[in-house]
């Protein structure tokens, strides 16, 4: 068989495995979140569908798929129908550059454990995560409802302010790894993970990542008790499900990015690389759920204050500091 | 000393700058401490047994006076307590009680039929309050939902039970609705008439 056909087959199999794995993980992350959050609040969480609620994601999916998909009469139909896909697609596409294991040899060909090793992987991540805002803003706007619109505007404003800190916090990482490729960044952490040398970056990136996933305490675009459900107030059925899916895939992706940039990616002793990667993603997710169970929602001005007056200046200082140390 | 007090002291010609800086740092430390307290609290909750009562497996014992399914009780002699006075039906805010009164050969009234529409009932307990004979009573048994709404209409045979409910000893006809036999002061719970002409006890 010609090598390029084999390459294509490998690529497609890899795509399929990653896509299915990602969607399954997202579904079970919802269950994990509900169970873990419940325990933080001295409850049990879902435990009726199957043993320990193990079938709950399946039940939820069936419910979402069979529910009526309502489109409000006054909504901008085309944009309204497309907006959830933007959110879900953006989250799924980012994962393409995240390396989740060591390169392996299969049938005599090298199979890299990443969908696409882009040399500008980091920029690709930022480009896509910025695109995710369009889903939120357009979904909020096209619903033609005041709650959705407010949620969409908040989402857009929040993303702009935190995207900046998110990007700036990674500049020192790039300076240290001397590459924009995520594979190279993991390779650069062969001796020690970057969290040890870049703790400030880590904190800024983590906070911005929580804001990026629109989770408590940065869930202003949704803000159940002020805005109904924010930008997805008017959505129902599987379109709402897509927003939900996007949010949780985003959580996995950002967990993966934190693992790649700060925790040494798939590196780790004893266990196989893929398992280490998953462990790190889940630890990050659990910490995020813990934060959700603890902190109240920030007010809009506090959110902006934290973003522009604290995170961005500190990130800039951190860049200067890293530069000075690297040059000296 | 509190950092706010120190800020107040800084008014006289001392350089204000470092003190304000101190105050800011104090606020930061306080904020971090508050954050840590929150996280520790939730973490501690993680290792506690959930306080959830899992309903179908565990049924919490309900107080005797909780208001759910309605019953018609009997007096200690085994007769129906209900005298079909229509007071419950009149008191009912949703008009879910209806009946037809009739009279027995010995002159005692009873309900020929008695019907409660549990689909309408709001379990407010006003019927129980209105009942002069303690016949109609609410019980803690609340698990009686049905798929077909018409099966929620309860007839007299469904409502009537063979005990006295909450006040098993009470018998309306011992207190009222009977001809006096023994003269003044001989009836149940009745004192002898006071002699108005004397102030002796």
Radius of gyration of chain B: 33 Å
Termini of chain B, distance in Å?
74 Å
Largest sheet of chain A: 2 strands, antiparallel
Q: What general outline of chain B do the C-alpha atoms trace?
A: elongated
Structural class of chain B: alpha+beta
DSSP helix fraction of chain A: 55-70%
| N→C terminal distance of chain A | 54 Å
| Net shape of chain A | globular
Kindly state the percentage of residues in helix of chain B. 25-40%
Strand order of the largest sheet of chain A: 1-2
- Counted by DSSP, the helix tally of chain B is 6
The helix-strand sequence of chain B is HHEHEEHEEHH
Count of extended strands of chain A: 2
Number of helices of chain A: 11
Total number of β-strand segments of chain B? 5
Ranges of chain A where pLDDT stays below 50 over 5 or more residues in a row are: none
Give structural notes.
- The complex is a heterodimer of chains A (328) and B (201).
- By secondary structure, chain A is an all-alpha fold.
- Chain A contains eleven helices and two strands.
- Chain B is α+β, with helices and mostly antiparallel strands and 201 residues long.
- In chain B, 28% of the residues lie in helices and 12% in strands.
- Chain B contains six helices and five strands, in the order ααβαββαββαα.
- In chain B, a hairpin with a 5-residue loop joins β2 (97-103) and β3 (109-117).
- In chain B, α1 runs antiparallel to α2.
- The radius of gyration of chain B is 33 Å and the shape is elongated.
- In chain B, 15% of the residues are buried.
- Mean pLDDT of chain B is 84; it is low at 1-11.
- The chains are: A mainly alpha (328), B alpha+beta (201).
- Chains A and B meet through α1 and α10 of A and α2 of B.
